[in-house]
Write a structure and sequence with these properties.
This protein has one helix at residues 8-13, and strands at 19-24, 27-34, 39-40, 52-58, 61-65, 68-72, 77-80, 86-90, 96-102. By secondary structure, it is mainly beta. The chain has a single domain, classed as Jelly Rolls. A 5-stranded antiparallel sheet has the order 1-2-9-4-7.
C-alpha cells in the first residue's frame, strides 16, 4: 500500500499544472492547484475515455459542461462520466486545489 500526503510540497508541484502522484494498475491519481483565473483547457472542452472522480479540497471552480456551468466548492466529490465534455476554471482569488482519480476504460 502506498500513501501520499496532501501537504504543501505536493501542492507546490501541482501549482498551475497536473501533478500525477499515483499511476498504478490502471489507476491514475493527480493533484492540481489552479491559479486564480486559470482555465483547463485554455479553450474548448476536455474529454476522457474513462470516468473521473474529483474532490475539491479548497477554493472554488466553475465546472463547465455542454449544458452550462456549475460552481464547485470545497468538500464536494464530483463524478464525470466517460466521454463527458468539460472544462474547469478557478473563479476565486486564491489557488483552488483538486484531487482527481480515474480508472482505465
Amino acid at each position: 500500500m502506498e500513501s501520499f500526503k496532501l501537504d504543501e510540497s505536493l501542492w507546490e508541484k501541482a501549482l498551475g499544472k497536473p501533478f500525477f502522484f499515483l499511476q498504478s494498475d490502471g489507476l491514475t491519481s493527480l493533484a492540481f492547484a489552479f491559479t486564480s483565473g486559470q482555465r483547463l483547457p485554455a479553450e474548448g472542452f476536455s474529454v476522457h475515455s474513462s470516468p473521473e472522480i474529483f474532490v475539491m479540497i479548497s477554493g472554488e471552480i466553475q465546472l463547465g459542461l455542454e449544458d452550462g456551468e456549475r460552481t464547485i466548492g470545497p468538500g464536494t466529490v464530483n463524478v464525470l462520466g466517460a466521454g463527458e465534455k468539460h472544462y474547469t476554471r478557478n473563479v476565486g482569488d486564491e489557488s483552488a486545489k483538486v484531487v482527481s482519480f480515474s480508472l482505465p476504460s
